């Protein structure tokens, strides 16, 4: 559904990200992993339009990005950046409501959609709180609600890009957000793409894993195909150990 061709971003002659051909699929939770500086955020920023790359190199549902009206594209492509800065003290629910800008909703439908988006990230209790007083993890989940709201009127399967959505979250919330990402893919048909550093979360929840190294995708497949100890040693320079999880088909790398 999302096709990328000849994607290239260089600064000062150094290629920071190159993807000759990448397809992202509806109903699939894709996880991007790789060492610091591998180009994961750059890839997401490129898709999100933040790098000014040519829009005709990407197509969504067979239509090139430059042929999509901006608001229609915003209803189908949502991005949770690694950092979101806000300097005014809005209530958390007003921050979420910012996601409604490409939508056409009555006032009451908008209020309800905001609450639905907050319920999905377990932030309902924060609705009236000043956003600036929230903890890092609470802010991250409120921002995710904003992006979920933005996609709630998509006419065809949307793409959700998450740049390190679990970086500020406690253990339980990390699993909840990964479960939500998998559910949005499997039950709602979203193409969900998340950058994660935790390879065990990637293996447990991802349908597909892309490994990036020095700006390029060097492995692409199911977690079992891609995340073995050899790959971990080669890509991260870390000699891990694999431990089987009882009564399950997956293993953790420690
Ligand atoms: N606008 C830019 N100008 C110069 N260098 C850049 C620019 N954007 C990114 N880089 C460099 O490109 C490389 C990839 O950065 P990127 O943020 O994509 O890495 P990452 O894989 O997301 O890393 P991390 O896991 O640390 O978040 C880094 O070396 C970074 O310093």
CATH-wise, what's the superfamily of the largest domain?
P-loop containing nucleotide triphosphate hydrolases
Enumerate the distinct ligands. Answer: adenosine-5'-triphosphate
Amount of beta strand: 15-25%
CATH arch. level architecture of the largest domain: 3-Layer(aba) Sandwich
Class from secondary-structure proportions = alpha/beta
Quaternary organisation of the protein chains? single chain
Give short descriptive properties of this protein.
globular, ATP binding, four-stranded antiparallel β-sheet, alpha/beta, 254 residues, 9 helices, binds adenosine-5'-triphosphate, nucleotide-binding, Rossmann fold, six-stranded mixed β-sheet, translocase, single chain
Structural account:
The chain is of the alpha/beta class and 254 residues long. It has 2 domains: 2-76 and 158-253, 3-Layer(aba) Sandwich (Rossmann fold), CATH 3.40.50.300; 85-153, no CATH class. 34% of the residues lie in helices and 25% in strands. It has helices at 40-48, 70-76, 92-97, 107-120, 136-150, 171-186, 199-205, 223-226, 229-236, and strands spanning 2-11, 14-24, 29-33, 58-60, 63-64, 77-80, 159-163, 191-195, 208-213, 216-221, 242-244, 251-253. It has a 6-stranded mixed sheet, sandwiched between helices. Strands 2-1-4-5 form a 4-stranded antiparallel sheet. Strands 11-12 form a two-stranded antiparallel sheet. Strand 11 (242-244) and strand 12 (251-253) form a beta hairpin. It is globular. The two termini are 35 Å apart. The model has no long low-confidence stretch (mean pLDDT 93). The structure holds adenosine-5'-triphosphate. Adenosine-5'-triphosphate is lined by residues 11, 16, 34, 36-42.
